[in-house]
Specification:
single chain, Nucleotidyltransferase, domain 5, 2 domains
Amino acid sequence: MTEHSRKNCAPPVSGRQPALVLGIESSCDETGVALFDATTGKVVAEALHSQIALHAPYGGVVPELASRDHIKYGLRLIDQVMRDAQIKGNQVRAVAYTQGPGLAGALLVGAQLAASLAFAWGKPLIPVHHMEGHLLSPLLADPAPAFPFVALLVSGGHTQLMRVDGVGEYTLLGDTIDDAAGEAFDKSAKLLGLAYPGGPLLAKLAEGGDPKAFAIPRPLLHSGDLNFSFAGLKTAVANEVRRLTGTALPARGAVSSAQPTLPVDHASRADLAASVQAAIVETLASKSLTALKQTGLKQIVVAGGVGANTRLREALTAGAGRIGAKVFYPPVALCTDNGAMIAHVGALRLAEAKQDYAINVRPRWALSDLRPVNL
């Protein structure tokens, strides 16, 4: 279990009453809670519980276990955040929660918590799109981008390029047609025998490797569009692992569940990890820079868990600098799922808050379904 909390001790703006939005995130394997002040634009307090240790023995997220863990930690994190901020429920303006997309059971836990608290306190609810939380999290950075900008959204099963003209004004420029970048990191890490979650561990292993040691493909790199495809990359990694270990490929049409024996020498694994990372980073950076050129915009934001990858940040910053553009990143702590991004979007959509306590989650939910907000 990993759990942390943070309190913003900045003094309040003189003469201005806070407009506090409580945000609850429970879409997958992190329980996040935060208080955001819409008046000052600051996170007042936040807490996060990670389920990494819970799911690690299974090599991935177990939905039923995730839901139970959200039940276990949701209320205690809310109590912690309220204590840190030294406020009571009647001082909250509204309660925001992740309505989707995500795991249905996990979303239901957060929705029920939010609706119950809002009903008890007599406060309105704000359903929030999880990916909009990630998409707008760079606005919490200092400096923050101004609209319009291009966004590279790399979170979980999502790898998308968006044009962002305002809150709720999103145009899809490119999407993944199969595996997302995060899935490619995690699946490749599993083939290399790394624990869950594999992406950060693969990046760590890659630090000691040669990124040119293996010819890992860059799918759709020269396709002429802004779409992504990473399923073939995982297959290439599996083939390299089999070659290194002398494990025979299954016959055409045959189904094999056997995992190949891992390469015994650390150097080969590090080289393969570095080569995989280089392929993913080059693809993401190249498509992102092409999106800037095609739109004529000079700002790009990177959001989602893969946005914490150091090599990706270096490649994008260098590439954007060559064409006179600028890259904005959320703080590393806001790259993964968290309550602050949900509370932040709740504050931006405060005018949409309603005293409607019906439990309604949306495991599948397109960003294009959202309505614009005039700030």
